[in-house]
Amino acid sequence: MINALGLLKRRRFLPLFSTQFLGAFNDNLFKTSMVLFATYEIFADETQESFFNALAAALFIVPFFLLSALAGQLADSMDKARIIRIVKTAEIAIMAVGAGGLMLARTGAVTAPLVLMLVAVVGLGVHSTFFGPIKYAILPQHLEEDDVLGGTGLVEAGTYLSILLGTIVAGFIYHSTTLVAALTFAVAVAGWLTARAVPPAPRLGPKLELDWNPVRASWRLVAGTMHIPRLFLAICAISFFWTIGSVLIIIFPPLVKNVLTADASVASLVLAVFSIGVAIGSVVINLMLKGQISARFAPGSVIAMGAAVLGFRWTVGLWTPATDGQLYDMAQFMAQPHAWLVLAALLGVAVFGGMFVVPLYAFLTTTVTKDQTARTVAANNVVNAGAMTFGSVAVAAVTAAGVTPGEMLLLVVAMCGVSALIAQRLHRACD
Description:
The protein is mainly α. The chain has one domain: MFS general substrate transporter like domains (Growth Hormone, Chain: A), CATH 1.20.1250. It is about 80% helix and about 0% strand. The protein contains 15 helices and no strands. It has helices spanning about 15-40, 45-75, 80-105, 110-135, 140, 150-175, 175-195, 215-225, 230-260, 265-290, 300-315, 330-335, 340-365, 375-400, 405-430. The model has no long low-confidence stretch (mean pLDDT about 80).
């Protein structure tokens, strides 16, 4: 196995990595800017803030549930590089709609800008639905078998580093909707350019007869994949992980504003630390496994993740809030006696989460033949989307019932326990 970072020198990997990096950066820059703008500039109520964040998360996820089956079929029946270029062209149009919403928000209007921005979120969900199966399924086609885990880890690490950058940038510029609109549109164009350099990845198996019925196609896709024991367990474990992630991402901005009593720059910092941690975990697990695709560290990783969530909740409980009507800025937040404990606990959550999920994605792309990898990833996306949608709806429901973000962290700990049991079964079945 070559050094994983050496893959970045290869034309069969770098353009794909760059395209994925720019796409994830743009998604996160737009969504984080929108959420921060709504949280700090539009709404003034914790319940409304959590509900809007949950709504945006659900709208982004719904296309995965409805269109992943079609995306997987197309990716396994067409040149994957061609689909990437089509998808990145669509991203330019999507960001034009989002930019319109951002610009309109500065006029003082509320409903129309939010509708346009949420329409763009749905569009980004569709964009990611069609790109998602390809970014993993193309790796076994372009890389040697013993480089697939390294490539998967780099894609995951790159994704979260791009989320980090998008989060940091959004925290500084979300209030300047003109700048956000211009930057997101420019990055979409840059992604279109890098997509044109992705080498061809033609169909390998027989041509498929596409099923355009989303419900029937999704059912057949999942049923045709989940009967394989290790795929079933891997997909279930990944779904629990992303449900946990969706809950955490939804509750972070309200928790920062209303519990840590900090401003948008700190909300951006919290999301950034989470992104850094997952990227670190993605690289660490590749080094620990030395390229071998194995789930032996997965149970311990997710148990440690649950323990870190408990630690995060404990440190948040020690927090001294700002005076009424005031919010800590970045410097004031970092000057608080428990700030480093909060960030260290959060970093632990993310590092162990990254160590848990990366080998599971490698399972998806190496268990089946190369002409079925995109449909396998798409089946995983369907199940993940259903689980994440359930998580988003559940957060909205329990928030409306009066459950606080701090209390929801206990639910996350319980879900980590379930994930550990599934991961242990996968380890026993495969290793």
